[in-house]
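Try it yourself: sequence plus NAI, in.
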Amino acid sequence: MSSAASAASAASAAPAASAPRTVLLTGAAGGVGTLMRDLLPAYGYRLRLLDVVPVDGAPDAIVADLADREALREAVRGVDAVVHLAGISLESTFEKVMAANVTGLHHLYEAAREEGVGRVVLASSNHAVGFTPRPRAGDPVIPVDTPHRPDTFYGLSKCFGEDMAQFYWDKHGLETVSVRIGSCFPEPTSVRMLSMWLSPADCARLLHAALTARGVGHTVVYGSSANTRLWWDLASARALGYEPQDDSEPYAEKLLAAQGEPADDDPANAHLGGHFCTSPPRWPH
Ligand code: NAI
Ligand code: 15L
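Structure, out:
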């Protein structure tokens, strides 16, 4: 299914009430994983945690690398869904990014298929479409079926991840919601993030909608709060039942005073991906 068809699929998806379910949360030691460990249980989920490093305060968390197929198969056994956050989340060498985010993702999908898990919620990224020119005043917001325009090897791996999700739906009937997360942090820390911010509480709302909407097939959504300065279209996310409650605007005055309005001719301000298009932050390891 093309991205356009994915959007159509989202339009027909309806939120469904569902009983608490067991969910594997990968990348549980990371920034978003740590926030979601706190917030998702309130929606009734029993979380099983996985990361390649130990998870603070969670001695039962599975410590496993995405390279380890058998460990992943065991990790998904008996869960109803997977929220997949694990992987390299910044730029690195082609080889390292592909190993974690493509080969590792393939291992996860194979494990899910073999164990009959029905749905994955996949952390994609704005950097899958990072070279999309950012909207200027008066321009329409960016639709979810805009072509892939990765800004890094990292973004490229997220494009491949979305295609992998499509493939597992078309070939094996395994559903995915691919969430192109903007910037999910406790608060926005740059002027760009005023447009991209996904508050932790809205992230939990969006993941819950993605876990419970009916008939998602493979649906691609953007992941942001209801920001006044939003650059992209939340329609396919809203069609899943996502109703964002937060807006970055209360942070605008302080951030603009500290950082100024980015210059129009600044190449790092020209595209959705911002500075990832010019000098991407590197994965530390
Ligand atoms: P993070 O880097 O803080 O967390 C990623 C976690 O994955 C880490 O705990 C790391 O140990 C684990 N991990 C890395 N390689 C692994 C492997 N081979 N096997 C098992 N675990 C491994 O990243 P963050 O910010 O929490 O992001 C979570 C996900 O959301 C990532 O997939 C990232 O690409 C995506 N994302 C995040 C955004 C954000 O604003 N935080 C924006 C767009 C996408
Ligand atoms: C991402 O994809 C990164 O994982 C995250 O650390 C942020 O840099 C975010 O994009 C962003 O664009 O702000």
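One thing you can check immediately is this: The chain is about 35% helix and 15% strand.
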